[in-house]
Write a structure and sequence with these properties.
alpha+beta; Aminopeptidase; globular
Length: 160
C-alpha cells in the first residue's frame, strides 16, 4: 500500500499551488458561469488566499501520493462578529481551498488533507471548522457529507 504524505507547503511548492488553484477554477467553471478563466484567476487567487492564511493564523498543506504532489489544502482561522455566537465558539477553522488532482481522486488524499486541517485546528483549541462549497458542486458536497460535515448556513443569491 502506498502511503499518503501530508506536509506543510514549502516555498518551492508555489508553482504547484498555483496549478491547484487553476484546477479548482476549472472545476468551478463547470458549475458556475460567473467564474473567470483559469489564466486570469489562478495566480491572483493564490496570492489572495496566501495572504489570508498569513494574516489569519492559517496553514498550507501539500499531499504527496506515489512520490508526486497531488493535492493541497489552504486554511485559516475565522471569527464570528457580534454576540450571537457564544464567545468560546466564535473562533473557528476555515478551509479556504481544497484540491486533489484528477488522477489521485478516490485514493484517500482528500481525506488525509482534511484530517491534517482538523488536527491543525484542534491543536489550536478550536471547536469547529467551516468551509464554503458551491451548491451545484455535488461531488464536493457528497465528499464533505461523507466526512460528517453538515450544512450550517446557506447563502442565497439572486441574479439581477
Amino acid at each position: 500500500m502506498v502511503e499518503i504524505v501530508v506536509r506543510v507547503a514549502l516555498p518551492e511548492d508555489h508553482a504547484f499551488l498555483a496549478a491547484c488553484m487553476g484546477g479548482l477554477q476549472e472545476a468551478e467553471i463547470e458549475v458556475e458561469a460567473n467564474r473567470s478563466s483559469v489564466e486570469a484567476a489562478a495566480e491572483p487567487h493564490l496570492a489572495w488566499v496566501l495572504e489570508q492564511v498569513a494574516q489569519k493564523e492559517g496553514a498550507v498543506f501539500v499531499a504527496e501520493f506515489q512520490g508526486q504532489r497531488v493535492g493541497c489544502l489552504l486554511c485559516s482561522v475565522g471569527e464570528d462578529n457580534g454576540e450571537y455566537v457564544k464567545p468560546e465558539h466564535r473562533r473557528h477553522g476555515y478551509v479556504n481551498d481544497l484540491y486533489v488532482g484528477k488522477k489521485a481522486r478516490g485514493t484517500g488524499v482528500a481525506d488525509a488533507l482534511m484530517q491534517a486541517a482538523e488536527d491543525f485546528f484542534r491543536d489550536q483549541g478550536l471547536t469547529n471548522i467551516r468551509l464554503g462549497v458551491l451548491s451545484e458542486n455535488k461531488r464536493a458536497r457528497s465528499f464533505y457529507e461523507r466526512l460528517g460535515w453538515h450544512s450550517y448556513e446557506q447563502v442565497y443569491r439572486k441574479n439581477l
